[in-house]
Amino acid sequence: MNVSGQPYRTIWPAADGSSVEIIDQTQLPHAFAIARLTSLDDTAHAIRAMLVRGAPLIGATAAWGVWLALCRDATDSGLAHAHATLLATRPTAVNLRWALDRVRAHVGTLAPAARAGAARRLAVEICDEDVALNRGIATTGLPLIQAIAARKKPGERVNILTHCNAGWLATVDVGTATAPIYAAHDAGVPVHVWVDETRPRNQGASLTAWELLNHGVPHTVIADNAGGHLMQHGQVDLVIVGTDRTTANGDVCNKIGTYLKALAAHDTGVPFYVAAPSPSIDWTLRDGRREIPIEERPPREVTHLAGRLPDGTIATVALPPEGSPAANPAFDVTPARLVTGLITERGLCAANADALQKLFPER
Amino acid sequence: MNVSGQPYRTIWPAADGSSVEIIDQTQLPHAFAIARLTSLDDTAHAIRAMLVRGAPLIGATAAWGVWLALCRDATDSGLAHAHATLLATRPTAVNLRWALDRVRAHVGTLAPAARAGAARRLAVEICDEDVALNRGIATTGLPLIQAIAARKKPGERVNILTHCNAGWLATVDVGTATAPIYAAHDAGVPVHVWVDETRPRNQGASLTAWELLNHGVPHTVIADNAGGHLMQHGQVDLVIVGTDRTTANGDVCNKIGTYLKALAAHDTGVPFYVAAPSPSIDWTLRDGRREIPIEERPPREVTHLAGRLPDGTIATVALPPEGSPAANPAFDVTPARLVTGLITERGLCAANADALQKLFPER
Question: Are residue B125 and residue B157 in the same domain, yes or no?
């Protein structure tokens, strides 16, 4: 997508041929900064410290990380070490394992000398595939928005609520939850997005708002507490969120708080859609709440918060009194029964095992 | 309650005999500061700018404000002006109108020379009554916590989730939602409180955490997004929240986001209680969602946030990119069907018109 008129992806091979560049998302929306990854350790740090985040982008970054690792050590043990190191960075998103397993399976059978080159080609392929998947999600999701627009009076906006950032910054490009939104906006459908700020890391206020602002999509930032009230008062036409891991029966693990919005949508009759590219589906699981590991992140992300001072510099401030502990579970699971539909690259899919099996018969 | 070992209320007549002192809650938890109100305008500002907040405390402060106004102008028009000015400060909590109407009815029939003195005595009475009501809520609510404790293994804590601040800082003293919690803690029941930080103004992280820390009650601050997940995983035994206005049929208007927690409690089978002193009940309303005016507060409360810098000074930082608008509805309505019970000063009450009528037959 464009940043100040120039097209960007979130990750790309650097011109030097031996490193990878990323947008450092910890600095958004206050600064647009590019960071360079030159090693496995750089890559693991970038994922763990959330310079890159978002399930699809985590997967893509991990693929590049294996390449960087193999450039230095292409032995079996080097490959195993890269796989293990990157897999341990974050526990919840399934795309990470999906990408790592795919690269390992592909290059593991090759002679060590051929491995780095093959990993590089596969990383390029995984990135391009991600963009293609997201374009597929746009194609699947656009008619949902158009159908609502068709029922509106001329000039009335379609109000879409989203949680966290499942935008182009969470992927290689285009985004998942935002893909149908950008497609609708670009097609001239008047859309307006309610952006959950998404505490504690504020990915909504920091990243989704920044994306939408850059692309010119009308939006309003709200506290995470506000969405239920807006739904009760007819201010939300549909919800679209992303997913970090979707089980084979349609349970959706996504950013903490997603479950609360799904409950409110269900209670108020607002459609609740999940943009779910197939790499986010974990075909081995059938009960999200019991089976998906939920990452516990540092309490400091709840108690401390970075923002822009009036003079433009960035500062971190503490909210609670010193001495009050905090807890920080990063994801929750929305049961399939609360999901109106999964927006996949192959089409719209009911959130249940039969429908998923039918749409992905090769699984 | 005690602050550093010294007992305080949130509001009291100053020693000079002509002003009122309050705890300036906008400075908590970073500084404990006392502010002085000397006039009607001071009082209206203190309510509007939330130096005092919480439905019961707003009512009590308004009563003192009428006294301050009548000290300068005790004519009929002075009384009418004080009533109108204070009533316009905040729209949602019904205690404000309740207190103002009560003072006006009481002093309006007196000769002007007698009005200020009578208003002062009534303000004292309203404050003492508030404390008594809250002690009644403690008596009603304590057995609910004790019953859960009795089912636990020895040493296991009762986990209570609360939203916003309905603690002693929201009242004259003791608190509403916290009244049973303090009573349980003081009675030796091991309790632990999940404190919703309560965006956008962070009354949970700032005020509830500060209260509980000062009183020694174990607690953990969480993002507002986390409560549903904790309930799904058996980490919450009951929810207790306050109310800014309860309708005659048991709908509860409280801080934005309360509805989301009520939905999660309902979905996971966690009891959801509302501490509802009778002055918070609006007997004229029967449909909270349609009838209760919801205050829209400044968007800046969402986009900007004050906290403590590492050097201890207080700074305000901005979160979203410049140019992204925000919206800030301050309350939402939880339908009576999601409320397990109302904890009133007269006893536990089902959230429906019949039960409320039976408990308050004089209405």
Answer: no
